[in-house]
Amino acid sequence: MKLTSDQVKQTVNQLGAQVLPDEHPAMPQLNSMFGEHTFFVDEMGLKVLEPTPSLGTDRQSGEVVSLADWGDSDLTRLMAHEPEPTGVIVVFEHVRH
Question: From what superkingdom does this record's organism come (predicted)?
Fold first, then answer.
């Protein structure tokens, strides 16, 4: 799931994770491995959001899915694994201008 800038801000606020910018040197490899997503890293590893079904509300949401865990204590090497849903849901509030 590729997020808008407002959705990225809301996700960072709700998760406390950092977003990987599109200019990050790892982005081409991540996109080829996992598809086009907005990628986040936290103290546990690499995450993305997958859309969740709408429950009749006009708010969108996404479930956090773990794609890789840190392979070292310095948080410099990621070890990919099968996508694992975390059960954490990020709800996007509409931003009014």
Answer: Bacteria
C-alpha atoms less than 13 angstroms from C-alpha of 88 in its C-beta half-sphere: 14
Closest listed residue to residue 83, CA positions, set 72, 64, 67: 67
pLDDT surpassing 50 at residue 80: yes
Give the closest residue to 92 by CA, choosing from 40, 54, 36.
Answer: 54
Single pTM value for the model: 0.88
Residue 56 backbone zone (phi > 0: left; psi -120 to 50: alpha; other: beta)? left
One-character DSSP codes across 29-80: HHHHHH-S---EE-SSEEEEEEE----SSS-EEEEEEEEEEESSTTS--EEE
